[in-house]
UniProtKB/TrEMBL annotation:
Catalytic activity: 4 Fe(2+) + O2 + 4 H(+) = 4 Fe(3+) + 2 H2O
Job of this protein: Iron-storage protein, whose ferroxidase center binds Fe(2+), oxidizes it using dioxygen to Fe(3+), and participates in the subsequent Fe(3+) oxide mineral core formation within the central cavity of the BFR protein shell.
Superkingdom of source: Bacteria
Protein's name according to its UniProt entry: Bacterioferritin
Length: 154
């Protein structure tokens, strides 16, 4: 089915966000593992896997719409030197991504592409959970202090 070029461009922009998030989260995961914070490693790694699934859905939809997935473009990736900075960068990335998904959902509706809109809404729900999880970790740090938080991540 030939899709609207505008929605294909939007899907490719979202794909760039997802591919960038995978890289950012996997680096943060490996840094946490290197520091001995296995629970935090698992948290970051799970989020990276979720982003891979999102990328897979977007690629599938682009192909269905007879578009060409662009996997060579990434958005800015920010690697934190310490855990609070990592969480801040991850929060910023998720916030931007959520904004982009909301705009894409609106565009898909305006173009009467309700199947694409439904896929985007499913991914948006995951992204909302991601930002909620990040905020929960940030709240834990603010409530129990960073050293106690990191001790709990061993």
């Amino acid at each position: 089915m030939k899709g609207d070029p505008k929605i294909i461009d939007t899907l490719n922009a979202l794909l760039a966000d997802e591919l960038s998030a995978i890289n950012q989260y996997i680096v943060h995961a490996e840094m946490a593992a290197d520091w001995g914070y296995q629970k935090l490693h698992n948290h970051f790694e799970k989020r990276a896997i979720d982003e891979m699934k999102h990328a897979e859905k977007l690629i599938g939809r682009i192909l269905f719409l007879e578009g060409q997935p662009i996997v060579s473009k990434l958005t800015d990736i920010h690697i934190g030197a310490e855990v609070p900075q990592q969480l801040e960068y991850d929060h910023d990335a998720e916030e931007k991504t959520i904004k982009n998904y909301n705009a894409a959902i609106k565009q898909a509706g305006e173009l009467n592409d309700f199947a694409t809109r439904e896929i985007l809404e499913q991914i948006l729900n995951d992204e909302d959970k991601h930002i909620d999880d990040i905020e929960a970790l940030q709240d834990q740090i603010s409530h129990i202090t960073l050293p106690l938080f990191l001790n709990a991540q061993l």
